[in-house]
């Protein structure tokens, strides 16, 4: 298949493009390098050094013999999006290209507006390009488990049968997200479901959990193929951050009591889930939703797991939670769709955690400690 990966310079987009190319798909990448600009803005950066996208693509050609066309531009530029879709003629578009950090979206009004504008309008431009140029294109869109929030009932895969006052219907599962970023994903999901109804679009919305890990079979083949690893309090995600803090000899920063529970998955499963979605397209008019996670852990459990695995003393601190989220709650998620397509999950193991220690050790001098503790507070707009 011909697959266009939007956000192909990012933490997940780059290893996914490599995996798809390695599996024989004609793969192209598109990015506007917004992510590298947030690094400059925040005075932060990837813990592991990463090459420019041009160098990465060239390195992949040397390692695999495969070409990977590269398109540099912004999804907010509709003419650019239409030109790329006409030129590359994808069968599938995998859409990772959004501002993805909840804390970034909660810095202030400007960052909230930027996040929702970038994400919602970029996605609308992609939807229109598909509808007007070739409605056969399958859109594989990265959503997030955080769209659902933490309701006191089981979380279904996108849809729920509701009986109300004696009548029944199949409805989109109700959403209660916890940041303006997570809300942008809810808006995208609703827009795409509408596109499936009015244009007969075929779409897969992947409500992905928190990803951990840094290495895939393809990125391991050459150091120039490495993907980024974020440690800072804005872009770093919880398990990666705890592993990095352990190696640095810093306390693990559990927000609140740590009773908040999240769905998680290994980066090697992310790339495989995308392949499965790409190779098994949704039907025309179908808004298909998968919950892309393999296991659930509370934040406290994640901290204890890292502390037990690290070969040295580790302190676990409980900070005042800068976010607005339930401290303890019910969490039971249905996630069978991708397993039914053939996913064989890598469950979290000591070996995965241990494999990250030397990567962090080698690069720990790159950490800007000022960015380790959380500074963005959800409630600050009220003060
Ligand atoms: P990332 O920030 O590393 O990558 C996103 C890429 O998209 C960046 O390279 C950025 O430059 C690009 N981009 C952003 N806006 C763009 C625009 N308007 N035009 C062109 N390119 C643009 O993020 P990631 O961690 O790789 O996440 C990728 C996707 O997966 C996101 O949509 C995110 O919401 C979702 N996701 C990530 C995680 C996670 O744990 N990292 C978990 C669940 C879902
Ligand atoms: N947390 C801590 N300490 C930390 C960092 C995080 O206790 O040092 C807690 C947070 O309070 C939260 C949980 O860990 O309860 C997860 O936080 P996170 O920063 O790892 O993840 P989140 O903000 O939810 O966002 C990440 C990605 C986002 C993706 C989302 C998937 O950045 O792109 O959408 O994971 S999900 O959580 O399923 O919505």
From TrEMBL:
It is an enzyme of class 3 (hydrolase). Transmembrane segments: none annotated. Keywords: Hydrolase. The keyword Cell cycle does not apply. Gene3D superfamilies: NAD(P)-binding Rossmann-like Domain (3.40.50.720), UDP-galactose 4-epimerase, domain 1 (3.90.25.10). GO terms for molecular function: UDPsulfoquinovose synthase activity. Its EC number is 3.13.1.1. Residues 3-291 form the NAD-dependent epimerase/dehydratase domain. The keyword ATP-binding does not apply. It comes from the Bacteria. Belongs to the NAD(P)-dependent epimerase/dehydratase family. PANTHER family: DTDP-D-GLUCOSE 4,6-DEHYDRATASE-RELATED (PTHR43000). This is UDP-sulfoquinovose synthase. It comes from Saccharomonospora amisosensis.
């Amino acid at each position: 298949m011909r697959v266009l990966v939007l956000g192909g310079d990012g933490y997940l987009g780059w290893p996914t493009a490599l995996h798809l190319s390695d599996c024989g798909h004609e793969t192209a990448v598109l990015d506007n390098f917004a992510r590298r600009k947030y690094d400059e803005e925040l005075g932060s950066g990837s813990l592991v050094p990463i090459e420019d996208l041009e160098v990465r693509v060239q390195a992949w050609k040397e390692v695999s013999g495969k070409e990977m066309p590269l398109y540099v531009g912004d999804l907010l530029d509709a003419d650019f999006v239409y030109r790329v879709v006409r030129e590359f003629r994808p069968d599938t578009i995998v859409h990772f290209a959004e501002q993805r950090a909840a804390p970034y979206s909660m810095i202030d009004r400007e960052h909230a507006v930027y996040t929702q504008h970038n994400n919602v309008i970029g996605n609308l431009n992609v939807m229109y390009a598909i509808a007007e140029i070739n409605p056969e294109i399958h859109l594989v869109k990265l959503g997030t488990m955080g769209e659902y929030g933490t309701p006191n009932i089981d979380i279904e895969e996108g849809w729920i049968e509701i009986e109300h006052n004696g009548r029944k219907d199949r409805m989109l599962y109700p959403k209660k997200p916890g940041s303006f970023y997570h809300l942008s994903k809810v808006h995208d999901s609703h827009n795409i479901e509408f596109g499936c109804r009015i244009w007969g679009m075929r779409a897969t919305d992947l409500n992905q959990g928190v990803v951990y890990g840094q290495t895939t079979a393809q990125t391991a083949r050459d150091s120039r193929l490495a993907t980024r690893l974020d440690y800072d309090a804005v872009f770093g995600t919880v398990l990666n951050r705890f592993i990095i803090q352990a190696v640095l000899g810093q306390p693990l920063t559990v927000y609140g009591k740590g009773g908040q529970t999240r769905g998680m998955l290994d980066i090697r499963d992310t790339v495989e889930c995308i392949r499965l979605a790409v190779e098994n397209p949704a039907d025309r008019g179908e808004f298909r939703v998968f919950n892309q996670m393999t296991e659930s852990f509370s934040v406290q459990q994640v901290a204890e797991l890292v502390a037990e695995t690290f070969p040295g003393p580790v302190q676990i601190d409980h900070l005042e939670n800068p976010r607005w989220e339930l401290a303890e709650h019910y969490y039971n998620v249905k996630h069978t769709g991708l397993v039914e397509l053939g996913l064989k999950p890598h469950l979290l193991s000591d070996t995965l955690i241990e494999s990250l220690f030397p990567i962090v050790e080698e690069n720990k001098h790159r950490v800007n400690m000022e960015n380790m503790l959380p500074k963005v507070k959800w409630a600050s707009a009220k003060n």
